[in-house]
């Protein structure tokens, strides 16, 4: 299934959540995305769901790609990893999980016949 890493996470007010990027005078606020959160979890701490090399490979894909293809096993491991994460707030993690659930729901829907 394809996870949209560029999906922008929204706050409770339905406005985009923002993160800071750059430094000094080039510091700017950019929207927080599913791909950024997942890649930061995978690259920022050792997670029991993936070997270090697998975590690095997935982190690179989520960081660079707009859509990341994930198989069923990795999808389940990603959900478990996000559920157990303590680095991000429940709001951010909940929004990422909502997106993953939506992606999984789309995969389970039968295709429309033409």
Summed up, what is this model?
The chain has 114 residues and is α+β, with helices and mostly antiparallel strands.
Description:
Helices cover 49% and strands 12% of the residues. It is an alpha+beta fold. It has a two-stranded antiparallel ribbon. The chain has a two-stranded antiparallel ribbon with strand order 2-3. A hairpin with a 6-residue loop joins strand 2 and strand 3. Helix 1 packs antiparallel against helix 2 (52-64). The mean pLDDT is 91.
Structural class by SSE content: alpha+beta
User: What is the terminal-to-terminal distance?
Assistant: 22 Å
- Looking at the structure, what is the overall shape? globular
- Average pLDDT, rounded to a whole number, is 91
Q: What does the secondary structure layout of this molecule look like, with pairings?
A:
Layout: E1 2-4, E2 18-21, E3 28-31, H1 34-44, H2 52-64, E4 67-69, H3 72-84, H4 90-108
Antiparallel strand pairs: 1-4, 2-3
List keywords for this structure.
alpha+beta, 49% helix, two-stranded antiparallel ribbon, 12% strand, single chain, globular, 114 residues
């Amino acid at each position: 299934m394809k996870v949209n890493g560029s999906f922008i996470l929204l706050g409770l007010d339905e406005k985009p959540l923002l993160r800071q990027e750059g430094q000094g005078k080039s510091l700017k606020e950019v929207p927080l995305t599913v791909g950024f959160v997942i890649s930061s979890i995978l690259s920022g701490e050792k997670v029991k769901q993936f070997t270090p090399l697998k975590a690095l490979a997935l982190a690179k894909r989520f960081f660079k790609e707009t859509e990341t293809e994930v198989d069923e096993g990795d999808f389940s491991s990603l959900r478990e990893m996000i559920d157990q994460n303590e680095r991000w707030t429940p709001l951010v993690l909940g929004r990422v999980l909502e997106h993953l659930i939506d992606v999984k729901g789309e995969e389970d829907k039968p295709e429309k016949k033409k």
